[in-house]
Amino acid sequence: MTDTERQHHLDLRETVDATAAAAGATAALPPDNPLHAGGETRSQWRDVWRQFRSHKGAMVALVLFVLTILFVLVGPYIWTIDPTYVDIRARNSGFSAAHPLGTDQLGRDMLARLMAGGRVSIAVGLTAMIIAISLGSLIGVTSGYFRRLDAPLMRMTELFLALPLLPLLLLMVTLFREPLSQSFGPAMGTFILIVSAIGATSWMQAARIVRGDVLGLKEREFILAAKSIGTPAHRMILRHVLPNVLSPIMVAATLGIATAIITESALSFLGLGFPPDFPTWGRLLYDAVDQMIQYPSRVILPGLFISLTVLCVNYIGDGLRDAMDPRIRGR
Amino acid sequence: MLDDKPLVSIEKLRVEFETGDGIVVGVKDVSFSINPGECVCVVGESGSGKSVSSLSLMRLVEFGGGTIAGGRLMFDGGDGKVIDLARQSSPAMRDIRGNQIGMIFQEPMTALNPVFTVGDQLTEGLMVHRNMTKAQARARALEILRQVRIPEPERRMDQYPHELSGGMRQRVVIAIAMACEPRLLICDEPTTALDVTIQAEILALIDRLKREKRIAVLFITHDMAVVAQMADRVVVMYRGDKVEEGPVEQVFENPQQDYTKMLLAAVPRLGEMTGKAAPERMRLMRDGTVSAPEPIIVKDPKPLLTVEGLTTRFAVKGGLLRRTVARVHAVEDVSFTINAGETLSLVGESGCGKSTCGRSILRLVEPEGGRVDLGGTDILALSPRELRRARRDMQMIFQDPFASLDPHMKLYDQVAEPMENFGIGSRSERRDRIAALFDRVELPRSFMRRYPHEMSGGQRQRIAIARALALNPKLIIADEAVSALDVSVQAQVLNLLMELQGDLGISMLFISHDMAVVERVSHHVGVMYLGRIVEIGTRQQVFENPQHNYTRQLMAAVPVADPRQKKISEDLNFRPIPSPIHPVDYRAQPSVYKEVAPGHKVLVEPATHH
Amino acid sequence: ERGSDGALNIIMWQAPSTMNPYLSGGTKELIASSMVLEPLASMTPEGEHVPRLAAEIPTLENGGIAEDLKSVTWKLQEGLKWSDGTPVTSADVVFSGQYCMDPQGGCSQLAKFEGIESIEAVDDLTVKINFTEPMPDPYSAFVGANGPIIQKAQFENCLGANAPTCTDQNFNPIGTGPFRVTQFLTNDVITFEANPEYRDPAKPAFATATIKGGGDAAAAARSVLETGEYDYAWNTQLSPDVIAGMEQMGRGKVSAAFGSLVERIHVNLTDPSSSHPEGERSTNAHPHPFLTDPAVRKALSMAIDRQLLTEIGYGASGKPTCNYVPAPEAWASPNQECLTQDIEGAKALLDEAGWTVGGSGVREKDGVQLKMVFQTSVNAVRQDFQALIKQWWSEIGIETELKTVDASVFFGTDPGSPDTLQKFYADVQMYADNFEGGNPAPYLAKWTCDKAPSPANQWQGENISRYCDPAYDALLVELGKTVDPAERGKIGQKLNEMLTKESNAIIPLIYRGTASAHSNSLGGVQINAWDSELWNVADWTRVQQ
Amino acid sequence: MLTFTIRRLLLAIPTLLFISLVIFLLLEASPGDPLGDVPLTVPPEVKERMREALGLGSPWYVRYVLWLKQFFWVEPLYWFDHVFGTQFSAGMQRIISFQSRSPVFDVIAQRVPQTLTVVGFSYLVGVLIALPIGIISAYKQYSWFDQLGTFVSMIGFSMPTFFTGVVLIIIFGVKLQWFPSVYDTTLVVRDWDSFWAQVRQMVMPVTVLALYNAAQISRFMRASMLDNLGQDYVRTARAKGLSERTVVLKHVLRNSLIPVITVIALGLPAVFGGAIITEQVFKVNGLGQLLITAIHGNDIPMVLTLTFIFAILIVLFTLIADILYGILDPRIRYD
Ligand SMILES: Nc1ncnc2c1ncn2[C@@H]1O[C@H](COP(=O)(O)OP(=O)(O)OP(=O)(O)O)[C@@H](O)[C@H]1O
Ligand SMILES: Nc1ncnc2c1ncn2[C@@H]1O[C@H](COP(=O)(O)OP(=O)(O)OP(=O)(O)O)[C@@H](O)[C@H]1O
Ligand SMILES: [Mg+2]
Ligand SMILES: [Mg+2]
Question: Does A164 contact D307 at a Cβ distance shorter than 8 Å?
Answer without folding.
Answer: yes
